[in-house]
Amino acid sequence: MSKADADVAAGAPSTAAADPGLDVAALAEGMTSVRSQLQTIGTTFGAAVTAVLAGLGYTQLNELFPLPGGKGWVAWIAVAGAVLARFGAPPPD
Q1: What is the 3-state secondary structure (H, E, C) of the chain?
Q2: Plot region of 12 (φ>0 → left; ψ -120 to 50 → alpha; else → beta)
Q3: Could you tell me the pTM of the whole model?
Q4: How far is it, in rounded angstroms, from Cα 8 to Cα 33?
Q5: For 35-72, what is each residue's pLDDT tens digit?
Q6: Could you give the CA distance from residue 46 to residue 85 in angstroms, rounded to a whole number?
Q7: Distance between CA atoms of 63 and 57, rounded to whole angstroms?
Q8: Among residues 44, 49, 55, which one has the least CA distance to residue 86?
């Protein structure tokens, strides 16, 4: 057990995660990687939800207005849409 862990276990106050003496620009620079990761996760989650909702919408539309022929083309369009939604977004700054 490290000294910091022992101090926390003994009830001593823990050290701050960020240096309170830093200015706003330094804190913003430190949060850049967190912001980038959150944007990536949000884009991925949005693409997955879009694919699910598009699939549900297609099933309901197909119940009302059945499309003739094979349905193999739908899977290709769904996969292409998900890939474009995930990788077609501009990279975070």
Answers
A1: CCHHHHHHHCCCCCCCCCCCCCCHHHHHHHCHHHHHHHHHHHHHHHHHHHHHHHHHHHHHHHHHCCCCCCCHHHHHHHHHHHHHHHHCCCCCC
A2: beta
A3: 0.44
A4: 28
A5: 888 999 999 999 999 989 888 887 887 788 776 667 67
A6: 8
A7: 10
A8: 44
CB within 8 Å of 69: residues ≥ 6 apart: none
- Per-residue tokens: 70: 């094979």
CA angle 62, 67, 68 (to 5 degrees): 145
Q: Which amino acid is at 42?
A: G
pLDDT at 5 over 70: no
Q: Looking at residues 65-83, what average pLDDT do you find?
A: 79
What pLDDT, in 10s, does the model give residues 11-31? Answer: 656 555 666 677 778 777 878
